Amino acid sequence: MSAAATCAVHRAYCVKIGFMRVNSLWQRNIAGRLAFTPAFRLYSVQSQFPSPTRTHSQPQHIESRAETELKEFFKRVPWPTTRQEERTLVASVGTVIWEGQNGARDKRKRAEEREEAKRRKIENGEDVVIPIYATEFSKEDIENEERRPKKKVALMIGYSGTGYYGMQLIEDKPTIEGELFSALVAAGAVSKANATDPKKSSFIRCARTDKGVHAAGNVVSLKMIIEDSDIVEKINSHLSPQIRVWGLEPTAKSFSCYQMCDSRVYEYLLPTHCLLPPHPSTYLGKKIVELAEQAGDLDAVNARQEEVAGYWNQVDEEYIKPILESAPEDIRNIIQQSLFSTDSAPQDLENEDVPQVQTADKPAEEAAQSEGMDAARESKSDEPFVMDPRQKLILDTTKAIKAAYMKARRSYRAPASRIARLQEALDRYVGTPNFYNYTIQKTFKDPSAKRHIKSFNVNPTPVVINGTEWLSLKVHGQSFMMHQIRKMVAMAALVVRCGCHPDRIKDSYGPDRIAIPKAPGLGLLLERPIFDSYNAKAASLGRGPVHFERFTKEMDEFKQREIYDRIFREEEQTAAFGNFFNHIDHFQTNFFLYCTSGGIAAAKLISAPGGTQAAATGGEKAGNDSGRALAQVESEDEGALPTNGEEEG
């Protein structure tokens, strides 16, 4: 063995021995020793590693909040001499190690800190604002309430998410869980003693859904009072028509609907006009042709767009040309420039009109000047504004053209070949790929970004509702991350509408970071969670299954009335899908060009470790700009986002 190899083996052995010694030292402390032994053997092991050189340089270190708190602890306690001090030190060190890496742990700690702060306020006699979902009873009411036995149950529910800030409890905003918990208390299913805190009833959701997202079937597990034979009817009487409890099933005490769920089935309703190509005059429409010509791929792109070739030219001739011809020449020239003279230069997002936080060090003169201008604007705005005839004509013509394009979109009917192209794209999701590009706050090397998709199918028979043709997409997966399904739908639609090869979806699983927008939330609904493994075990123990089969009729009626009709009505009123893709088509940035013949290289932001070095150039600016791009394209306020890309379910 060479000297270098011998040294490497010796170093590895020393590391192993060092960790064993530290571990045994910790075990002795747990056994009863109150003070740490300062002679950490690991220090001598670390000193054997090469010191940083030009080749082994270390990145600049920015002190975290946890490190600052640890230093403050050491100012107070030079070294622990009691068991409590020892525990505090161990917890602080653990926080330093895992801060920013363990979202679930950080979330638990924040929740514990909030509860502790609330407890201190109560002890000090301070006013505490209780969450909107909590019901407060007097001490006398709680003491006089009859104690009734509680059972662990699986509560099967359905809801329309319109108007709610998602499934998950939020202290100051209406959510599905918040309204459900209040109804459980009002119906007597949760005792008065537990009426302010769902955790006291072991309240757990099976699948989290975003703001505005619906569920025909979801499950909540909790301990509740089920003595009343009509308890389900009582709960429903305290709920809005948008939320229904289908039924309940008593379970084992250890049952957790989140942990016991094998898989979930989601449905996404997509208008077929989302499969139309970008208008040839848009930035994306021009780039598709330009990059296809550069790559010698134009014939292949045209072949994939065969069934929609010339669609927009026909629309311009039949719908738009008559409107333009009816306008005066000066008005027509302005409108035509707006429609057909899109600058092909990429948009500089750094100078975009993005809301900025005013800094504290802004000069007083500048602030005063700004305030004066604002006041002048306000005084001017008090005067009624009257448009001159040309301005009004421009506005009226613009509205007419926008309405004509919207009418053309809604009248589109997708042929079977176009729907088959969408299915080809969806097939690329099946398996266990790395979906880190399809969520938030995940890295390429994060093992949790790999998710198993069992199937992703589009119903080949579309339905026409209120003049718009719709497709039903259903995805069956083990679990999903934040925004994953909506980003999968958006990516598949972009691939089809841009005439891109469906294998581009496979390219998105690689180390290069790309900006995938999320499709509108109004089309997504959780159809049902599946508990096959639990049900098989429950059957062997004589327990009932957790499933939705016996509620099929009620669920279908509810889906049609409260979910489907709402989706169709909201799309008719807001044109959310048309506006979403229209914004992408006109957005002058390269971030969405991965769906062209330029491939991932035309749009990548920054490579993950192991990716190409070129992609890392300007990576920080690219990341910031992509965030602005997605924020503007999606134009949705999601509220507070979960830490570390928390799972949807």
TrEMBL record:
**Location relative to the cell:** Nucleus
Q: Residues in domain Pseudouridine synthase I TruA alpha/beta?
A: 425-532
Asked if the Swiss-Prot or TrEMBL record annotates the protein with the keyword Nucleotidyltransferase, the reply is no
GO biological process terms, alphabetically, are: mRNA processing; mRNA pseudouridine synthesis; snRNA pseudouridine synthesis; tRNA pseudouridine synthesis
Q: Which residues form the active site?
A: D210 (nucleophile)
Pfam families annotated for this entry? PseudoU_synth_1
* Gene Ontology annotations for the cellular component aspect, listed alphabetically: nucleus
Q: Where is the composition biased (Basic and acidic residues)?
A: 374-383
Statement: the UniProt record of this protein carries the keyword tRNA processing: yes
* Highest rank taxon of the organism: Eukaryota
- Which UniProt keywords are listed? Isomerase, mRNA processing, Nucleus, tRNA processing
Q: Where does substrate bind?
A: Y266
Q: Entry's InterPro entries? A: PsdUridine_synth_cat_dom_sf, PsdUridine_synth_TruA, PsdUridine_synth_TruA_a/b_dom, PsdUridine_synth_TruA_C, PUS1/PUS2-like, TruA/RsuA/RluB/E/F_N
Q: Which GO terms describe its molecular function?
A: pseudouridine synthase activity; RNA binding
Q: Which residues cross the membrane?
A: none
Per its record, the protein catalyses: a uridine in mRNA = a pseudouridine in mRNA; uridine in snRNA = pseudouridine in snRNA; a uridine in tRNA = a pseudouridine in tRNA
What is the predominant subcellular site recorded for this chain? nucleus
Bias category Acidic residues: which stretches?
A: 634-649
The record's annotation in SUPFAM superfamilies points to: Pseudouridine synthase (SSF55120)
Region spans: Disordered: 342-383, 611-649
UniProt lists the family membership as follows: Belongs to the tRNA pseudouridine synthase TruA family.
> Which purpose does this protein serve, as stated in its record?
Formation of pseudouridine at positions 27 and 28 in the anticodon stem and loop of transfer RNAs; at positions 34 and 36 of intron-containing precursor tRNA(Ile) and at position 35 in the intron-containing tRNA(Tyr). Catalyzes pseudouridylation at position 44 in U2 snRNA. Also catalyzes pseudouridylation of mRNAs.
Q: What is this protein called?
A: tRNA pseudouridine synthase 1
The source organism is: Penicillium diatomitis
The taxonomy runs: Eukaryota, Fungi, Dikarya, Ascomycota, Pezizomycotina
